[in-house]
Amino acid sequence: MVDSLQGQRRPCRPVRLLAIFICTSLTVFSLLKQGATPPLPSSRPPSPFNASKLALLVEDRPLPVLAPLVLHFMAALPPDWRFLFLGSASSLSAVNASVAIRNHARTGRLGLQRLPANVSTSSQEMISRFLTSRWLYETAVVPAEWLLVFQTDSIVCANSRLAVDDFLEYDWVGAPWNPDGKWGGNGGLSLRRVSRILEILRNQERPDDSEPEDVWLSERLLYFPGSNMANGSVSLSFSGEIHSGRPEHVVLPSMANGTVANDGDYVEGMDDWRDGFYEPMGYHTGGSGVWLHSPLWGTPELRRHIWSYCPEVKMTLPMDVALFVPGNCGERW
Predict the structure, then answer these.
(1) Out of 3.40.50.720, 1.10.3720.10, 3.90.550.10, 3.30.1360.10, which CATH number does the structure's domain 53-234 have?
(2) Fewest CB atoms less than 10 Å from the CB: which of 34, 109, 173, 299?
(3) Residues near 103 by Cβ (< 8 Å), separated by ≥ 6?
(4) What tens digit of pLDDT does each residue of 112-134 get?
């Protein structure tokens, strides 16, 4: 009896499969008729870079330091930051001579663009006009929200425990003019919030031959509704230029599982060389590395510590090996 029943059920199986096939085919045909197609897998992986973060260098002089400086900033900033170099034909040619620069340009992390023909950076006034132009914030750096402006006399220090991302809550940060002030800072190494600046520039225009761009912009940001300006203390931790900031101090190490457990502290026995010295995230000197202010640079001890803490700052200073290795004294070795 069982064999008989099983034998009666077997013919139903092909019929059921045929019904499923017909239903599936009709469904697919209906979707195709309506223009619906199954999604294709994306051929392009998501970008590892954050479109809202952009570091900008504007330089029309073909300086030999350009490529090393850009590459250092790319290594020292968080890896999701993008970069834009705006220059002249000669400065772009100088930068493009670097194979490493060309490799970064191919990955999309670095953009290399020619300055508009009507833009000049031949003087501080011309630079101020460019850095307060709507075109820069409305077109050139789109879609960035945070803009790190750096110049050839500025540097970020690889040894710093602070990163640019630690300051993203502020609308403007730069080396402070007043260490006890509530706003403002030098624009040569500065972090700016693009949307706020653009709103200001859509309603106001900086008069030619007036205040420097960093003074003009940061003063207006101070009175922008809801703005958040870094005070002098915060700004000193971001960049050092004229004034010295809070010195670092070491603490006794706390051990756990055989290693130092202090989170964010400098500890005795490892970081003693930092004790008592001011260590900003970066430096801006001014005057293409000529203006070295006494509170930061004025003694051999201060300079010796900077050479240890931030040796890369030497790229921004006019240091000539000919002064130390004269051409008529041991010229070959």
Answers:
(1) 3.90.550.10
(2) 34
(3) none
(4) 999 999 888 889 999 999 999 99
